[in-house]
Amino acid sequence: FGGIVLLSCYSGQQKIQNEPSLAGLLARELSGHAAPGTAVSGANGYSFGSPEFRRSGRSSVLPEELATFYNAADNQRMATAWLARKPTHTEGVLEEKLDIVVDTGKTILENLETLEQPEKSPRETALEYVASFAVDAKEIENQLRRVLVNIRKQSVAAMTEYLVDPVNGELVDVINWNNAIDRQYKLFKDLYLWAPDGTAFTTAQVA
User: What secondary structure letter does DSSP report for 48?
Assistant: First the structure.
């Protein structure tokens, strides 16, 4: 038994003063019921179901400092948060759109400042990308909502079973759902929004 992973939002973070995180609480309550040292991990931020789950068994996590991207309703705040972030990989929009040799040790602002004779200021570039993100994110969210309406099952569990059942793999709703999830994962990845593996989850241990 390798441990427990909690995929709910903030499950690895202490959200109430003087109280442990949900992962910490579960680890504490499992004392005497599970082997000492059993790992209980929880997400450090907003938790998204994504293709990452197929690889690691964990969700993709949007950290709290990027919370403004969750609702995608304030382009100015998104741009400010994005410029202050360090890229989490060397591809994405900086490399693909602007041909920047991405330095993950510098902020996105600092990376943008390496452009020679840029057509736009870093702030203008950031606003352009986050505005496009907001449109795409809302479109993906609406597509997912349409799929759930079409499925019309009585519970979240029933809808989940429908979507993951191999028998339904070629049905239009299932294909549309999977395509939307893949688009969402790439959209967030291209803007360096997902938390890196080392910071996405916090692990507590059973005493």
Answer: E
